[in-house]
Task: inverse folding
């Protein structure tokens, strides 16, 4: 007869990532969350150090530009991993946003400033409509929203080419603050619009040539918007060729 201790003691799994869904999820999060991020943090630290040492040397301008490209790619890889992991947490309602009164115009401007390297390298025509003297407040998790904005921008960069146009705007609409990313890149076919935001993986969509998510960034942005009382949508106008990502949060009066 099996002893009580033997029956209650977890037995080693015959599979690398576990036998049941909770075990598999925990293993994947541990693998991705630690093992994939660790090498990237070393690359990021090294690139930041080299750039700081040589960015003022006129003889190394080209080299520093290459280092900035490597740094941007490493930071992007970290974001892709984090968004993929937190998408699952959002789907399971285990991610708790740390919401606070946030000025959204400044947040959006900071994201665009820090992504200026990617925008310049892509050679997009960037048009922005950001209020100068009208603060727009929402009760959101600023770090989470920043990640959402980067994911949306990442998708726009992925599916545009040189000389495409990207419009970024933020404005109040009724009782909401609405942020729009509009571009002339690859469009979202209407029958795949819902799956872009909600259904990974997207093999059929890729075979059909429609716009898909990048590293599950769009499902991440969609779930993160819902978790903060907001909404997120994507659509393309087949007549004009413009694709629009619309992110909205309930507006609040500044305290």
Result:
């Amino acid at each position: 007869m099996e002893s009580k201790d033997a029956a209650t003691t977890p037995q080693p799994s015959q599979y690398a990532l576990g036998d049941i869904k909770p075990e598999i999820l925990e293993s994947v999060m541990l693998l991705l969350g630690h093992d994939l991020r660790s090498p990237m943090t070393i690359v990021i630290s090294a690139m930041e150090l080299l750039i700081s040492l040589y960015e003022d040397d006129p003889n190394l301008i080209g080299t520093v530009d290459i280092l900035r490209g490597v740094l941007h790619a490493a930071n992007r890889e970290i974001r892709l991993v984090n968004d993929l992991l937190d998408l699952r947490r959002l789907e399971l309602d285990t991610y708790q946003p740390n919401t606070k009164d946030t000025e959204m115009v400044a947040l959006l401007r900071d994201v665009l400033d820090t992504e200026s390297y990617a925008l310049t390298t892509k050679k997009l025509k960037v048009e922005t409509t950001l209020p100068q003297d009208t603060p727009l407040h929402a009760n959101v998790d600023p770090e989470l929203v920043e990640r959402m904005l980067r994911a949306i921008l990442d998708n726009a960069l992925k599916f545009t080419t040189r000389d495409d146009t990207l419009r970024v705007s933020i404005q109040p609409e009724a009782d909401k603050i609405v942020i729009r990313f509009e571009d002339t890149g690859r469009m979202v076919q209407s029958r795949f619009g819902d799956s872009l935001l909600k259904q990974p993986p997207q093999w059929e969509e890729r075979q059909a040539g429609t716009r898909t998510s990048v590293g599950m960034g769009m499902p991440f942005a969609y779930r993160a918007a819902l978790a903060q009382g907001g909404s997120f949508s994507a659509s393309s106008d087949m007549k004009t060729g413009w694709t629009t990502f619309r992110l909205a949060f309930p507006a609040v009066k500044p305290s």
Q: What stands out?
A: The mean pLDDT is 87. The longest strand covers residues 243-252. The beta strands are 100-103, 125-129, 137-140, 165-173, 176-183, 231-236, 243-252. The CA atoms of residues 197 and 217 lie 9 Å apart.
